[in-house]
Each structure stands twice: as structure tokens, then as C-alpha cells.
Amino acid sequence: MKDELESSKGFLPGAKRDKQSITSDWHLLQELIDGVKIREVRNVLTKNGGILTEVFRSDWGLQENHVDQVFQRSLEPNGISGWHMHGFTTDRLFVNWGLLKIVLYDARSNSTTFGLINEFCFGSVLPALLIVPPGVWHGVQNLRNETSALLNLVDKAYQYEDPDHWRLPIDTDKIPYRFELG
């Protein structure tokens, strides 16, 4: 009986209903990995037709440490910056151009969110500052057919002689997430 009813409404076997992923106030419903913080930012239209976007303010209270270095990373269309992690450095990621998917994986065995995946899409239309604590693996994918870029405001500047940078291949079986390749 139930199958007949569902069939009459066009349901096909195996179809799954979406789970709620956002509130009516447009807040993401996603348990955040321990230590991950987000500050969504509004674009402000200026009188001369431009757009002003704040990237970082110390009074947002998102950081425990100061900003030691700021750098920009661009990704070509559909490009992916594969899995990487820092042992001591906190990343503060801000997509300043285009649209990027940022995926996080908590591999810290002593974390309350061990094994959790977070997935975000930020960019020019939805700017946000994303805090990624040490020990959380992250990968970034450009979702646009044009170059996209992000700023990283790290608390420890890159050490050329002793990089705090660990990498895994994008198709590693150590992280239960697969990027859709364009």
C-alpha cells in the first residue's frame, strides 16, 4: 500500500529524503569539529558602487594567538589543494575571490569530535573566516570555472627550514571523504 502511494507520487526505489541542513535563519546545522570556528561576514555596498568586506578583526574574539603571516593561495578552475595538516599552526581561511569548498577532518584521537567531517562552501557571495586548529586535516576545492583564491592568516609564519606542514594524497584511504573531480 505504502509502495503504491509512493509510486503514484513519483518516488523511485532507493530515493532518500534530504536531512535538514540549514535553519530558517540560514544557519548551517552542522556539528563543528572541536576548535573550528566560523565568522560569517557581510559584504557592504559602498557609495561608489564597490563592495567592502572585512576579513579579520581582533575584537571578533576568534583567535587565541596573534596573526604572524598572511598569504594568498589561488586555485585554478576545479583545482584541489589536497589534504594537509599542521601540528602547531592555526589556519584562518578567508575565501577572497570565487567559490571554494573547504573540507575538514578531525584525526585527533583525543578530540571529542574525532573522525568528524565538516564541509563548507565560502566565497565572494558568502564570505566567512574559518578557523582550523592544529591537527585538523583540510582540503580545498575550487567550484568555479575561473580562478578562486583564499587568504590564510596563520598564527605561526611558515618556517622554511622546518615546515609545520603534513600532507596526504587526495585519494588517501585515511580520510573518509572523496572530492568530486570535475
Characterize the structure shown.
With 182 residues, the protein is mainly beta. Helix content is 4%, strand content 35%. It contains one helix and twelve strands, in the order H-E-E-E-E-E-E-E-E-E-E-E-E. It has one helix at residues 2-8; strands at residues 37-40, 44-45, 51-52, 69-75, 80-85, 91-97, 99-106, 117-123, 128-132, 136-142, 148-154, 166-167. The strands form three sheets. A five-stranded antiparallel β-sheet has the order 1-9-6-11-4, with no helix packed on it. It has a five-stranded antiparallel β-sheet with strand order 8-7-10-5-12, with no helix packed on it. It is globular and about 65 Å long. 21% of the residues are buried. The mean pLDDT is 92.
What's the arrangement of secondary structure elements?
Blueprint: H1 2-8, E1 37-40, E2 44-45, E3 51-52, E4 69-75, E5 80-85, E6 91-97, E7 99-106, E8 117-123, E9 128-132, E10 136-142, E11 148-154, E12 166-167
Antiparallel strand pairs: 1-9, 2-3, 4-11, 5-10, 5-12, 6-9, 6-11, 7-8, 7-10
